[in-house]
Amino acid sequence: xxxxxxxxxxxxxxxxxxxxxxxxxxxxxxxxxxxxxxxxxxxxxxxxxxxxxxxxxxxxxxxxxxxxxxxxxxxxxxxxxxxxxxxxxxxxxxxxxxxxxxxxxxxxxxxxxxxxxxxxxxxxxxxxxxxxxxxxxxxxxxxxxxxxxxxxxxxxxxxxxxxxxxxxxxxxxxxxxxxxxxxxxxxxxxxxxxxxxxxxxxxxxxxxxxxxxxxxxxxxxxxxxxxxxxx
Amino acid sequence: xxxxxxxxxxxxxxxxxxxxxxxxxxxxxxxxxxxxxxxxxxxxxxxxxxxxxxxxxxxxxxxxxxxxxxxxxxxxxxxxx
Lengths: 231, 81
Hints:
Chain A is an alpha/beta fold. Chain A is built from five helices and eleven strands, in the order βαββαβαββββαβββα. Chain B has helices at 16-27, 52-67; strands spanning 2-9, 40-45, 73-80.
């Protein structure tokens, strides 16, 4: 199997994602420059965090017009796995591959700390290997992570089981206090109806080594690798 | 030919930046303000031989495809000779 990590001008979490796939998942991985239009040979692409195009206009708004995004759309339509982390989630929403939008954090500040996430749904290729009802400790680092969608969209997300991660407290309760950015219904990550595209604001690639304070992010990458292996 | 494009938040979308500006306005002594909402303003300068109709068409496409995020923003366009 082969993973790809997309690199836009301004992406800065690409190396962390590459490192996790290479060292901890132990699979072949390549960087993919944003002008690339050929994704043949890849099973999964990660759209990493950072500040693509400087967050100009809106976070992710300009990255969606890069040549690689057209290829990613086709790739996703054909069942390829597309994993957007932080800026990657913003890009997926701007390009319509996921519904909704990420607004400025309600407190106006850039927040950089560990949060607790409740796994809402084990029925996705990204969470199948994670213990049901788990709480994961994963860091966030963003100023625009406030997930918003209208009522109809929210209803669909609920009905289709597309909400994958919610901010919660240590006891696993999705309270207002545990919501760092005002995201609707504490939503931290969602997937598309087909479940091959996932976007999340927290950084699981920064939670794969004891040295960084948590290894709770590993389960997500291992679930994905298993899903690819099982075809 | 020039297009002015005003992009504003839809009603109902929370605007914490607008609120922050409102609080600062109050600190400056302006207590007669109900609400402030922040938007964006784009000026598109067209090349010499572009007609008003063409400019309008391009401006609308740009606004639809890129300048406004339809999930949260509305826009209005002015064409200026």
